[in-house]
Amino acid sequence: MGMGDSSKTGLHPIEASALQARRERVYLLLAGMFLGSMTMLNILGVSRFIRLGAINVPLADGGNWEIALAVAIGVLPYPITFLCTDFISEFYGRARANWVVLVGLLLNIWIVFILWLGGELPGFETIVDGKRLNADGQVPAFYQIRALAFGAVGASMAAYMAAQFCDVYLFHFWKKLTRGKHLWLRNNGSTLISQLVDTVAVILITHFATHTLPLNDKVPVWLQLVAFILAGYVFKMVIALLDTIPFYIGVAILKRYLQFDPTHPDSH
Question: 0.85 exceeded by the pTM?
């Protein structure tokens, strides 16, 4: 297609055809949803915990330990990241999925840099005992968010790399093993294992590196960490199983829209 032809169709010369432009727009949408969700996760982080329920366990001293089934608010957008990488892996291949994961890591580093820079530049706060206080004598909201986000980003960056690359690898492992069949297996098999890796890493790093988890001093720490891991993983597991339906529907729609069957790469 020459430049004259592309101008008539409204395409830029770099877009070989309307079909290629459509495929790139879908990739951009999936990558954008993935990166946007990662950004929300790191900014919201552990700024608030959602209480899903509680279990009362009797203690030796006659009291009760209320095991709160809680997840950080930053977890809410996280399941969509695995759905996005599964779609990208299915239609665009492992290399592109890994590239999106790498860009997500770079985005995390960029967020940390902006948060650091924003806190170091001079402002209108007053420094009292090493703390920056506003005119009301309170720590500005930015610095509260910054402290929580630093902890969340630090924990998520390590977990993120392990979990996302694990997800992409396992997705293609199951796809190759089943020769493109059993869509549910590669969708759930990759996500469930990678989210377990992510949940364990995030909880342990958040506790030991930032000490921002709401813990009870009367209960052994490791029991509470296990409770946080189980609550977070069960939440992610339920979401992962539920997203099998939209994944099947999405794959069926994209096959027609992109005019490409990922189980037959030679199709057009």
Answer: no
